Amino acid sequence: MIRTAITAGALLAMAPAAMAQQAPSGEPRDRSVYFSAEQMQAIEDGAKDKTSGAPAAFSKRLITASTHSTSLIRLLKPDTPHAHAVWSEIFVVRAGSGILETGGTITGVTGHDSATHKDMFLDPQAPPPAGAKRPAGNANDLAGTGIDGGVQQHVKAGDIVLVPAGVAHRWLKVEEPVIYLDIKFPKAD
User: Fold this and answer.
1) Reported pTM
2) How far apart are alpha carbons 74 and 44 in whole angstroms?
3) Best label site of 40, 98, 132, 149, fewest CB within 10 Å?
4) Structural domains in the chain (count)
5) Quick check: 69 and 184 in contact, CB under 8 A?
6) Structural domain range at position 162
7) Using one digit for the tens of pLDDT, what is the confidence trace for 107-117?
8) How far is Cα 90 from Cα 110, in angstroms, rounded to an integer?
9) Residue 110 is part of a domain; what is its CATH number?
10) SS3 of 140-183
């Protein structure tokens, strides 16, 4: 009985730390944030098409902070051209391959909402922490139907791509489902 109480107490004491590592929503300043390979795989495995049970496209926010954010994304098909006015991005490709087009000029402007993956979000976009001065999308973001003068690059697992703020980009072709970390941070002043 005493052993059971001690074990239960130890598990309860460890639970908050484990939960905080699984889904941080603020900007920790006193500890690191860790996502295990098993946690990342569980996110991928959990995103299934409701009808067929096949892997589905998704965007899962892992970290939301005042100066950066990180999402795990799986694309099954090309996305639309867009440019973020204040956010730069680094793509760390974990799996799959495709053609990424960057640079040039967005054509056929359809609006100023560069959140082209919003229909794939697994969870609502978390608000920034209280008092944070996190840049939001603004009237200078662009979305369109094409890119004129862009550079097409074959991208595959293991590759890393930097897309500076203001640079047009899109996944033009997805050969195998592309799974990547999307790390966003404000552009330099």
Assistant:
1) 0.79
2) 8
3) 149
4) 1
5) yes
6) 35-186
7) 998 888 877 77
8) 25
9) 2.60.120.10
10) CCEECCEEECCEEEEEECCCEEEECCCCCEEEEEEEEEEEEEEE
